[in-house]
Backbone:
């Protein structure tokens, strides 16, 4: 995977993961949606999402980086910085 993905492409991939793997209503997936409060994530969901994002990016995501993530936009930011 290369760093040629745009923020929109990262967001769309994240949205696909959230809809298909976590069965979250697409209408709820907004940049400022909180993963834990708005999308009802728990810690196991967060780990599963990190694994799916590692598959997408082909990069290792450290648990420390993922602990800071709260919103959908935070995930996009983290993936974007990982791909730089």
Residues:
């Amino acid at each position: 995977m290369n760093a040629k993905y745009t923020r929109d492409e990262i967001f769309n991939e994240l949205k696909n993961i959230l809809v298909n793997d976590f069965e979250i209503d697409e209408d709820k997936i907004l940049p400022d949606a909180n993963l834990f409060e708005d999308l009802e994530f728990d810690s196991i969901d967060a780990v599963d999402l990190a694994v799916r994002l590692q598959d997408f990016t082909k990069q290792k995501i450290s648990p420390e980086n993922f602990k800071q993530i709260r919103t959908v936009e935070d995930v996009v930011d983290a993936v974007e910085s990982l791909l730089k």
In short: The chain has one domain: 7-82. The chain is about 55% helix and 0% strand.
